[in-house]
Amino acid sequence: MRGRRAGGLARGCPRWHSSLTVTDTRRSTSLDGAHILVTGGAGFVGSHIAAGLAGVSGVRVTALDNLKRRGSELKLEPLNAAGVTFVHGDVRIADDLALNGAPVDVIVDCAAEPSVFAGRSGSPRYVLDSNLGGTLNCLELARQRGARVVFLSTSRVYPIAALNALAVDENESRFVLRDAQPMPGASGAGVAESFPLGGARSLYGATKLASELMIEEYAAAYGCEATVLRLGVIAGPGQMGKAEQGVFCHWMARHVFGGELAYHGWGGAGKQVRDLVHVDDVVALVIGALNSWNSVRGRTLNAGGGLANSLSLCETTALCAEITGTNVSLGSVAATDKSDVRVYVTDHAALTAATGWRPKKDPRAVLSDIFEWLRSDAARLRAHFTA
């Protein structure tokens, strides 16, 4: 979906054993003094998760980030205000993760080069080292410290050709998945965990799938405890969105700050579809996973907005125009990029059954929150979105 190109061997449970009761992601009951490390902690998702976990009574949170991504430096002040300890480090360097030998009870691995274009125009070294190498370093730290791991994976692990082979109907504003599909793990409700994994998916998706496999091996070999959450499109305030990663924020930013947009691929009508989930719902998901650890431990679960929280690009345009009162110039390019997927909708039924989690914010609320954030800090953010 694209717009304008623009230490010792540890087995079993970690040191803390209490359950976490979630009422508000910023004010919840104790994790008995747990120290939680969030990698990619100054990124869009990681910074929200770190701040949300820091609001849990008795929890210490460290956010580690190399600050490579444009705009990540803007997260440092909010992290400090939330009581998060920031470490300028890189997941590719094991010594940076060591934290001078401090105990670590939970690792939430959010660090990634998230673009589906990563490595296509040159060496894939950074995306491989950061995504797969970084996860291996996190797993080694978990093995040495007896830490639990929450790994944020992606829907991009599902192969492109298989997704584009799904049966769809076409209406005035979008492509719609049919209930009857030619392969398992797909229906009108979206893509479930049993969807076939054979085929190419992008270097980004491949590194995430390889990381999932290494997590499974560490669980079998060393007893490391982990859960894998395959997330769809995440959106919300604080996202420095681009066409290939963070498309909904990118779309709203064009409506706020100006600039052209174009529908790329699938005939150029903007009917390709994604579901979206608010970053606040992702924070609640991570805390809920820790709360329901026995239900999610050792499992790989799809997490996303679902069919009720999905939009096509042309529907996104209409909703952005309605929220902002602004219309933008729209182009059309019929040719489809090899990385683009016609429809991706998350079937999160297994996750909901395991934890009770489901998204609370609908697409209008997600886009409205982005709009208010862009408008509230327009002087500083304009340069980031118009450069």
Overview of the molecule:
The chain has a single domain (35-386), classed as Rossmann fold, CATH 3.40.50.720. Helix content is 35%, strand content 18%. It has 13 helices and 17 strands. The chain has a seven-stranded parallel β-sheet, sandwiched between helices. Strands 11, 13, 15 and 17 form a four-stranded mixed β-sheet that branches.
List keywords for this structure.
single chain, 387 residues, four-stranded mixed β-sheet, seven-stranded parallel β-sheet, alpha/beta, globular, disordered N terminus, 17 strands, 18% strand, Rossmann fold
Q: What would the CATH topology be?
A: Rossmann fold
Note the gap between the termini: 22 Å
Q: What is the CATH superfamily classification? A: NAD(P)-binding Rossmann-like Domain
How many extended strands? 17
- Indicate the structural class: alpha/beta
Give a quick account of the main beta sheet: strands, pairing sense, barrel closure: 7 strands, parallel
* Architecture (CATH level 2) name: 3-Layer(aba) Sandwich
Q: Hey, roughly how much beta strand do the residues contain?
A: 15-25%
The helical percent reads: 25-40%
Sheet with the most strands: spatial strand order: 3-2-1-4-5-10-14
In round numbers, the mean pLDDT is 91
Write the layout of secondary structure elements.
Blueprint: E1 35-39, H1 44-54, E2 60-65, H2 76-81, E3 85-88, H3 94-97, E4 106-109, H4 125-145, E5 148-154, H5 160-164, E6 168-170, E7 175-177, E8 186-187, E9 190-191, H6 203-222, E10 226-231, E11 233-235, H7 247-257, E12 261-264, E13 273-278, H8 279-291, H9 293-296, E14 300-303, E15 310-312, H10 313-324, E16 330-333, E17 343-344, H11 349-355, H12 363-376, H13 378-386
Parallel strand pairs: 1-2, 1-4, 2-3, 4-5, 5-10, 10-14, 11-13, 12-16, 13-17
Antiparallel strand pairs: 6-7, 8-9, 13-15
Helix pairs in contact: 1-8, 4-6, 7-10, 7-12, 7-13, 10-12
